[in-house]
Amino acid sequence: MIFSPNFISYLPWNDKIDKGGRIALMVFTKGDVINIIGFNEFLIPVVNYWEEEGYKVEISYDYRVKDKRNKIFLVVDNPKTQVPWRILLEELKNVEGKTLFLNYPRVFKTPDHPVWKHHWDGIIAFFWEEYLPKNIYLVNFPSYPVMEKQATESRDDLGIPKNKKAILVIADYSFENVLLYLAELKKQEDFYLIVFVSTWEKEVFLREFLKKKGIEVDRVVVGGVWYDELQLVSAVDLVIVDGGKNVEPFHVYKLVGCGTPLIIKDKIFTNFLYNEVIKFDGKEKTEIKGITRTELTTGVMKFKDKDELFYKINLIFTNEHLRNLVLGTSRAFAYAHSPERVGSQFLFIFKDILNPPIYVPSKKAVRYVNNPLFKARPNVYLNLRRKKIAWEKLVYNAGAIRIGGTIYVFYRALGEDGVSRIGLWWSKDGYTQEGRLDYPIFGPKESYEMPKNPEQRRRFHKRTFGMIREIGGTEDPRLSLIDGNLYMTYTAYGDVVQLALAKIPVEVFLKGVKSFKGYEEWNNAWVRNGPIFKYLEDKDAVLYLVEERKEEYSNGKRAEDDFVNVFPELLDKKVALIHRIPPDMQILYTDELKKRSIKVGRTFLMPTPKFWDSIKIGAGAPPLKTKYGWLHIYHGVGDWMGKKAYGLGVVLTPLDEPDKIIYRSAEPILQPEEIYEVEGWVPNVVFTCGVVPKNKDSNEILDLDDEILIYYGGADEVMALAEIKVGDLLPIEITANIY
Questions:
Q1: What distance in Å separates the CA atoms of residue 552 and residue 572, rounded to the nearest whole number?
Q2: How far is CA 672 from CA 281, 618, 646, 712, in A?
Q3: Which residue among 144, 307, 629, 650 has the highest number of C-beta atoms inside a 10 angstrom radius?
Q4: Where are the domains of the chain?
Q5: Which residues of 6-28 are buried (b: 16+ CB within 10 A; e: fewer)?
Q6: Which domain of life is it from (predicted)?
């Protein structure tokens, strides 16, 4: 990919000129300095990641500017430090680089505080809080994936009996009520009780309390470095943290994913973990009594009183399925919040602030005049386990592929039983139906594709919603053609909403269209890979071949990496996987699993404050290969006409650097306007999983005159179609300078 020297002339300079009339555009590259002003220890592993990536980090602990020539100044709020705001903010007015403010949670600031009056180039926050401006970048709080631990040795060192359950109480904060509760429980249940405090001073206070209340514990552990505390956590069967106002969020996140269930006071949970539930749009309840969706997502349990604490201790110790689920999701949560991922979010923001993408509007996609393209058929049935099931209640969110001049649309069908399966529709011209099977070609078969107890979930839905909604199944297929195989990423909705992967040889698929006789034959023809990221709540994945491997690795997949799982043949090529852990999208190359074992990848694209996709974003269809780069149609969520709406936008990346953004559309190319998009099962939604060339096969390279067809779901109820030329999606300001 080569850029013309004239490319820079097309930039909107009115947004790139500072007060002195100088060009303010800066390129942020490895070797540049990140000047951190102030500090907090949760940033230590993030800083280590930045330095591993080749950036220099300078820390000003005294909150003073030392070198105004640096490109990035990140001011870190710290509740333990008296920050000289007026002096610092005055100094920041004279720096040459960009200034960003990292807001620390739970530090109350009134609207008239000087920090909000300062002109920041960017504001970053971990959690939504009422006093924050709305034009912020939201990042994830860093957690720490499972470390190498010697739990057995730790148990022996601590003298924990092998035949007893061990409970650890973190007593650096409020602990009085928890110890009183556990002393009562200990009279009924025989377990080993350990209490941890970080300092000798806190130990004195703890022992005075124990003596006064007559409480006996089996062991008190004092202090030690961070790693020692994690070793201790890994040695026990359960960790409990009560909460006062001084609980640090990084302490909670540090404990998540250490291989031990964690139960914390509900106030801490609400302050620091409830933010995770935004990905579920407020659907907090689950079919498991007393367990919320956020608890299943994070793997962290909460309690508000003695009865709830006892109930959840009993669940953890007696319900093996729930315990395994909690351990799996907490581990996945830690990987998703790893320093590598969070550090890459910051790097994306730094680059976005220093060198913003060109926000030039593209043209709008044109809807097919006969939309909806097709609807659910109430008269098609499946016979499963001697039951007759109407498997098409709603149809939407279809993947698509063009092979040999025929377009195949794999659509999601939600049945009357609340189970999602995948149906097949095909066409020569893309508009006129050539065929549509009366049965699905893919559906739930493995344990991760359905909840363990679907009937319990159905009863819960009837009780909660008054109807059966989405019980489980296989959702939102996206298709990629690589080396004679048709790969399909999809969402497996079991006890956890996970990304999954399956494949079918193209010749088998084409044969099946002509000769397969039913659902079971189709379902058995697919080879399932299983979840891509084990237990990780994740969606919206696209897979595409970047290039053939240029070198081979004889050791194969790293033995210690048992979290990420893809077909072995994909490790022998450079294949890109883009997926979505809210609020941003991540990109992972399969060769990294061999060289570096990066677990979830680095940030590919983030929501943009003040734009149409400011709330959250996710992949649409696998990108199309054009002469000008990889063309992505993605979905974004933001405010539109006073309502939260799903729209479609455009991103272009170089063919040889798929994680570098050349262009991003200023406005959506498609947003809910028609009745079938505005009203339905989920109002105000246009959502695509399938985009194909109109007159070329999906693996061919496109030029500006080529048209593409966008198959999308309207309001999660019907299938619709829109079309547009490649040249209408990419402004001439972009294409004229790439050759």
A1: 7
A2: 19, 17, 7, 11
A3: 629
A4: 23-139, 151-337, 353-737
A5: ebeebbeeeeeeeeeeeebebeb
A6: Bacteria
Of 142, 112, 145, the closest CA to residue 124 belongs to 142
- The chain-wide mean pLDDT, for the chain, equals 88
Q: Does residue 390 register a pLDDT over 80?
A: yes
Q: Give the CATH number of domain 353-737.
A: 2.115.10.20
Residue 106, pLDDT score? 65
Query: pLDDT (tens digit, 9 = 90+) per residue, 199-251?
Result: 899 999 999 999 999 999 999 999 876 667 778 888 899 999 987 767 777 88
**Tens digit of pLDDT for each residue in 581-612?**
988 999 999 888 877 778 899 999 999 888 88
* Helix (H), strand (E) counts: the chain: 20, 35
Length of the chain: 739
Res. 549 pLDDT band, cuts 50 70 90: low
Whether residue 281 contacts residue 582, with contact meaning beta carbons closer than 8 Å, is answered with no
Mean pLDDT of the 397-417 span:
97
Q: Which residues contact 438 (CB under 8 A, 6 or more apart)?
A: 380
Cα gap 676→670, rounded to integer Å = 13
Instruction: Specify whether the CB–CB gap between 528 and 494 falls below 8 A.
Output: no
Distances (CA, A) of 438 to 122, 289, 471: 53, 38, 22
φ, ψ of residue 638 in degrees (nearest 5): -165, -175
Q: State which amino acid sits at residue 626.
A: T
CA distance 470 to 461: 9
Residue 462 in tokens: 């009837």
Q: Which two tokens stand for residue 613?
A: 């996709």
Give 151-337's CATH code, choosing from 3.30.70.260, 1.10.3720.10, 3.40.50.2000, 3.30.420.40: 3.40.50.2000
